[in-house]
């Protein structure tokens, strides 16, 4: 079996700066920290995906919101892959980095459920990463005009799970 990689998608300061709080924000942050601790303790590579969009002041390079969130600060040796679309693979170095690491399984967590997280899960599957895990209690979003954040998270866990990813709770994720 190849290498497992923890993929932390868009856990950036902007996500914590809005008036509306992320769904289950404190719980999700605690789970993201637990995943990082588990990965680091076993030497599992961690890749941070950082959304960069010059047209959006919250995600403009070097803005306060653009920075990886302090709650999951990368270590100096951990990779940061910048992206400018919802897909972490599209026009980024992610595929190359994963090949370099010999990765065959991604453990996926982060923000926002219905945008970058969903698109990356589907794209990874289509690119041949078909043994991935979505950490069902370590991703979040905000309310939309149509659905509550709770409904969005539940819907995406249901749609992605057992199709594009396996679903595991943080407590059940083990790196070796």
Automatic annotation (TrEMBL):
Record keywords: Hydrolase included? yes
Hydrolase found in the keyword field: yes
Q: Which domain of life is it from?
A: Bacteria
- All copies of the Isochorismatase-like domain together span 4-144
Q: Which key words tag this protein in UniProt?
A: Hydrolase
Q: Any stretches that span the bilayer, and where are they?
A: none
| Listed InterPro entries | Isochorismatase-like_dom, Isochorismatase-like_hydrls, Isochorismatase-like_sf
Show the SUPFAM superfamilies listed in the entry.
Answer: Isochorismatase-like hydrolases (SSF52499)
Q: Which Pfam family, giving just one, matches this sequence?
A: Isochorismatase
The entry sums up its family as follows:
Belongs to the isochorismatase family.
Which PANTHER family does the entry link to? Answer: ISOCHORISMATASE, PEROXYUREIDOACRYLATE/UREIDOACRYLATE AMIDOHYDROLASE-RELATED
Q: What is this protein identified as?
A: Nicotinamidase-related amidase
Instruction: Tell me the organism.
Output: Paenibacillus peoriae
């Amino acid at each position: 079996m190849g290498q497992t990689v923890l993929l932390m998608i868009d856990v950036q300061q902007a996500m914590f700066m809005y008036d509306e709080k992320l769904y289950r924000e404190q719980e999700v942050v605690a789970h993201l920290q637990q995943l990082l601790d588990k990965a680091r303790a076993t030497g599992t590579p961690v890749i941070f995906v950082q959304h960069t969009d010059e047209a959006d002041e919250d995600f403009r390079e070097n803005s306060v919101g653009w920075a990886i969130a302090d709650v999951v600060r990368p270590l100096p040796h951990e990779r940061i892959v910048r992206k400018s679309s919802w897909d972490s693979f599209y026009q980024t170095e992610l595929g190359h980095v994963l090949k370099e690491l010999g990765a065959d399984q991604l453990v996926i967590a982060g923000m926002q459920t219905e945008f970058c997280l969903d698109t990356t899960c589907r794209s990874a599957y289509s690119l041949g990463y078909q043994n991935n895990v979505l950490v069902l209690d370590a991703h979040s979003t905000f309310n939309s005009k149509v659905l509550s954040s709770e409904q969005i998270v539940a819907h995406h866990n249901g749609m992605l799970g057992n199709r594009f990813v396996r679903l595991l709770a943080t407590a059940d994720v083990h790196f070796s």
